[in-house]
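Project standup — Tuesday

K.O.: blocked on the structure for the chain from last sprint. Re-posting the sequence here as requested.
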Amino acid sequence: MNLTDFKLSRAVPVAIATLITVNIAALGFAELQISKLAESSQELAEFTRQNDASIKELEVLTKGIELDIVSTQEALTDISATAAWMVWMTALSWRRNQRQHLPTNRAASRKLETGSGSRRCARQCAP
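H.V.: unblocked you, prediction finished:
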């Protein structure tokens, strides 16, 4: 056996031992990373459950707000329709009243045009 064979026969087992040690270290590191990822995923799952509950609660509140908006719109429509009806009825009543007094107003305007009743108007209209 020469010297190179001797060095080679010693280097091969050392290299194999080194590779085994590196593989064991890599396995340990991988196991550590996997356990950290498992903890993170459990925390993330809990966070997701909490957020899902909050989202569901917000969804229910949103539906309630939508119903409130619709009922408010209906109430405003009813009020607007009622107000328009009241204005219409007031206008009709005023028009009827004006038609009833129309002959009287025409007679008064004729008196003013002809001069009869001008003193009375002057007394009544004077400040």
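K.O.: great, moving the ticket to review. Residues 13 and 20 are 10 Å apart (CA to CA). The chain has a mean pLDDT of 80.
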